[in-house]
Amino acid sequence: MHFTDTVYRNPYWPTFPLLQITQGCTHNSCKFCTMYKDVPFKLQPIEWIEEDLKELAEIVPDAKTIQLLSANPLCMTYDKLAPILEMINKYLPKMEYIYACTRVTDIRNKTVEQLKALKDLGLREISLGSESGDDWTLERVNKNCSASDIIEQCGKLTESGIDFWLCFLNGVAGKEHSMDHAIHSAEIFSRCKPMLVGTGGLTLFPGTPLLEEAERGEFTPLTEKEMLIELKVFVEHLTCDCYFNTHHTSGIHLSGPDFLKRKNKIIEALDYEIRYGDMDRLAAIRKNKRTL
Ligand code: SF4
Fold first, then answer.
1. Which residue has the CA at smallest separation from atom 5 of ligand 1?
2. Whole-angstrom Cα distance, residue 14 to residue 34?
3. Given the DSSP bridges, would you call strands 22-23 and 42-43 parallel, antiparallel or unpaired?
4. Edge-to-edge strands of the sheet including 163-170?
């Protein structure tokens, strides 16, 4: 297999075979991200993709699922992407469920009809690394996408029938803008109605512009307690039913389906953690994190 950069597997789909169709990230400039920092973006040669599919056809000939790599494999135009999905179906004829992470902006270059055609070829689920629904925050961390982009592109996905996730990056707006980040993200995500809302907490990694800004006093990171308060405000304002998933380091179990039925319990659990949680332990866990 031609894996040419670090492989980030979706931990919720641990058994999906992996197929790399791009390398790195087209944007590679979000101020908090180190994932593909030293990897130039490129499309994988189509010969490599075909060789990898031949290999997968020998190892898992009955595969019904697959995850596409790397950071944003759906950046390709429809004309480039559709033949790859056709090739997947040719070598893995039982294929039913193609999954990929990608940027919100990668949906821009496809029409609803093209998205429907990609769905017919098996593209069923996409994780969108949105991080926020607040325009100030999106610009502050150089996400290169706006709240109206998120609404527009998610609307196209909904119309095409492709399921999607939206991700909230807890803490990424810093102290001054924390509440706007929480409230506006919840409002925008609620309008988009994703199948899943995922939340993760900001860790400032060495080599990121955001850490350098924090060291110069230009960005004030949240404390662990402030992260929990922000997360609670986000949850309070989230009104769409979805699977709710959190990677918060507290270890309290908040993830699961039927968000609206569980919303009050999630808020109660967060309240408890805010009052009685061991914040030093949370900070120590975060310090040991190596990637987003
Ligand atoms: S967060 Fe995603 S879009 Fe931003 S630089 Fe990292 S991989 Fe690329």
1. 28
2. 23
3. antiparallel
4. 18-20, 65-69, 97-102, 123-131, 163-170, 196-201, 243-246
Provide the phi-psi class of 45: left if phi over 0, else alpha when psi is between -120 and 50, else beta. beta
Residue 168 lies in a domain: yes
**Please, what's the b/e burial string for 7-27 (b: 16 or more CB within 10 A of its CB; e: otherwise)?**
ebeeeeeeebbbbbbbbbbbb
Q: Mind listing the pLDDT tens digit for each residue in 77-115?
A: 999 999 999 999 999 999 999 999 999 999 999 999 999
Tell whether 6 is covered by a domain: no
CA dihedral for 270, 272, 278, 280, sign (positive or negative): positive
Question: Distances in Å between the alpha carbon of 144 and those of 72, 74, 164?
Answer: 14, 16, 20
- Cβ of 228 below 6 Å from ligand 1: no
Q: How many domains does the chain have?
A: 1
Atom of ligand 1 nearest to the CA of 131: 1
For the segment 14-41, what is each residue's pLDDT rounded down to a tens digit?
899 999 999 999 999 999 999 998 899 9
Residue with token string 């492709």: 162
Closest by Cα among 156, 64, 61 to 116 = 156
Q: Does 1 fall in a domain?
A: no
Of 5, 34, 35, the one to substitute when testing ligand 1's pocket (max ligand atoms within 8 A of C-beta) is 35
Is the beta carbon of 210 within 6 A of some atom in ligand 1? no
Residue span of the structural domain in which 165 resides: 18-287
User: Is 5 a member of any domain?
Assistant: no
Q: Assign residue 163 the CATH number of its domain.
A: 3.20.20.70
Phi, psi angles (nearest 5°) of residue 122: 115, -10
Q: How does pLDDT run across 161-175, given as a tens digit for each residue? A: 999 999 999 999 999
